[in-house]
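Troubleshooting log. The previous structure file for this entry was overwritten by mistake, so regenerating from the original sequence record. Sequence copied from the archived sheet and checked twice against the printout by T.R.
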Amino acid sequence: MVESLSQVGAWVEERLPGLIAKYQVPAASVAILGDGEVVRTAAGILNKASGVEATADSVFQIGSITKVWTASLVMQLVDEGLVDLDAPVRRYVKDFVIADEAAAARITVRQLLSHLSGFEGDIFTATTEGEDAVEKFMPVLAEVPQLFEPGEMFSYNNAAFSVLGRIVEVVRGKHYEACLREYLIDPLRLKHAATGAGEAIMFRAALGHLSSSEGAAPGAGAGLVAGAFERSGRIRFRYEREQPCRLREDAHRRRSWPGWQTGPERRKRCSNAGTAGQASGARSHGR
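Regenerated output below.
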């Protein structure tokens, strides 16, 4: 017999406390979508130093799941005819530079979204916490090496999504955070969302926790940084249901599509895609 969503939610709520205790997870929040309805539950301690308990309205850092938000902003531009997936990045961001000039001129928006651009992607140079942070990140890429030809193979690329964020800024004429709120957060009526620690402290926010040694219980220590969102599960599922699967062919062939990685079963529905995020002392997952 197929269980109802409420039964599944009750099952998760009952077992979640035991599971996080077993695996030494300080706190966890779970959201499940079914037939247009969402059930949410949480368990544990948001900050082991203060003892604040996790609730379903707590905000957690979502790490690389932010890529799904960025991909959504880009795909909205595609839907509006303002961005061409197969156009070179420089059509929109004139000052996009990497060490390989020829590659910089060829890399397309689609290749950035699909982790096929080929340049070194683990670039985490801090610029500023101001509204111009994404813009100021662009010159940082000037000496970044090209590892393989654009489109040749898949290689997970964090920096590519900063470039995509800059495309959104240039085309919209607004900084990234303003676009995030105007085109995603506000339309989805998310009341508890923060793009940085300064906003996150207004809510019941989780702190990252790290273990001092293997097997040791994790303790509070990692700072709150950008990327905490309430109900991140809801927006992931909302994106999955409403955004057209424009890169579905690439997803099947490359095991990826904008902001998502495809699972081991290559079916024809985008709902088989998933994504995960990780930051200092925090992890997030979406299916």
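The radius of gyration is 19 Å. Archived copy saved in two places this time.
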